[in-house]
Amino acid sequence: MAIEVKVSSADAATGDAGIIAVLVFEGALEKQAHLSAIDEALGGAVIAHAKNVDYAGRENQVIEVQTLGRLTARRLLIVGLGPRRGMDDARLRHAVAVATRTAGTVPKLGIVLPEKIQGAQLRAAAEGAGLGAYRFLKYFTGDRLPKTQLAEVTFYRQGKFTAVESKALALGLQVANAVCIARDAVNEPPNVLTPDALAQLAKQVAKDGKLKIHVLDKKGIEKAGMKLHYAVGQGSTNEPRFVHMTYTPAKKAKKTIAFVGKGLTFDSGGLCIKPAPGMEEMKSDMAGAAAVIGLMAAIAAIRPDVEVHGILGAAENMPDGSAYRPSDVFGSLDGRTVEIINTDAEGRLVLADALAYARNLGPDLIVDIATLTGACVVALGKFYSAFYTADDKLARAFSLSADTAGESFWRMPIVDEMKEQLKSQIADLKHTGDRWGGSITAALFLREFVGEVPWIHCDVAAPVLGERARGMYPRGGTGHPVLTLLNFVETFK
Ligand code: BES
Ligand code: MN
Ligand code: ZN
């Protein structure tokens, strides 16, 4: 259920919210004017309690204070924003999301903002509210369904709210909803979210956002010459799909970016089948494609002056009598041949054809997003994604976008020396190398298909799915890295 966001310049203590969260800066609480009305209503108990527990207002530091029946609200949270200096969108979004998620199933939440939080910054606040309110309840019945749900978040702040601020709040909610499209798609089980269902979702988003869309089915993929994509999908009764969405700005665009997402709706490994423990996580192997769909939904709402293409390679990697096998050789959309070594390295094959397709569009930049390698998780752990690019300027811009979004990305090296691992004895290329630096060899394989087009490759294997809630991410599908990609598009020059 989507939440509503309201604003009020009244005293939060007199409002009708069942729970109030006050966002505070790090440092002395008694000097923070927006806290004093509530502190006074409680006879100074808030600041006294904060002192007793050495509360400092550090980033995402949360305490709960007893309201002893003296507020309409039954619960009161104090949520830290960190230092006043260098306050940014990412910290605000995080704090609001944490407050909102902590509110749980209480229908009305009041969030008290410091006066300093103003203007366009409120977009990040609304994003945080929408992201923190997210729950995936679709498959619960009876007692497993909560009896109430958060429906309304009111931001309290002294002084008038401006038209710019109302617009920022509305936009923030739209962005949060777009991120939640990606989360839903990742959470959806793979018996429901087949490649066709993923294409249908893209169609719905295109329809709602007035985007162009073109979908190829199994036959269409074969006819187009995407033989690698076809091969990966041939072992499943859930047939593959290729999707191309296009956003064209009203004014003629100066720049064009093509985003390419890996959309493996389930990755069993194929004939090189994965071990059973953890195989269930491979329902998230379409998170790259989900992020591209979420991004396109956000782009449709924001309508930036960049032309944006969203390309999805959707398939299910399954073992059966018609499955592709190690030692098979296939052509690709760009004409070169590939020898299959391990059928579990399927993502780079689907992407190879999709990247070649993207390159034919003549964009200024290609960005691919893929849950590509377990090796990436070994290298960076579960919280960081890797990105690769040969261009230092692009790398700086991308890092900055990730920081602004509050998402974790680390640049990895493209090691030319390792390319010899992809030499095949019987075809132009083989698609895997040795054990070491597996995320790098995957990137080297992809690079073969982008030609001279500037390119960023994102290996997002771990952060797309969370074992537990963390900051603005819920458990399960996180919506990573939609916000990073969106900021990158909005700031692209
Ligand atoms: N989808 C997996 C990568 C993955 C692993 C994502 C763990 C998220 C968590 C990918 O298709 C895969 O299986 N890669 C293989 C490549 C290997 C066979 C060269 C891997 O990483 O083991
Ligand atoms: Mn695989
Ligand atoms: Zn995979």
Describe this structure in words.
The structure is a single chain. The two termini are 36 Å apart. Helix 5 runs antiparallel to helix 9. The protein is built from 14 helices and 19 strands. Strand 5, helix 4 and strand 6 form a beta-alpha-beta unit. An eight-stranded mixed beta sheet has the order 7-8-10-9-13-17-14-15, sandwiched between helices. A six-stranded mixed beta sheet has the order 1-6-5-2-4-3, with helices on both faces. A three-stranded mixed beta sheet has the order 11-12-16, with helices on one face. It has 493 residues and is α/β, with parallel strands linked by helices. Bound molecules: ligand BES, manganese (II) ion and zinc ion. Manganese (II) ion binds next to loops.
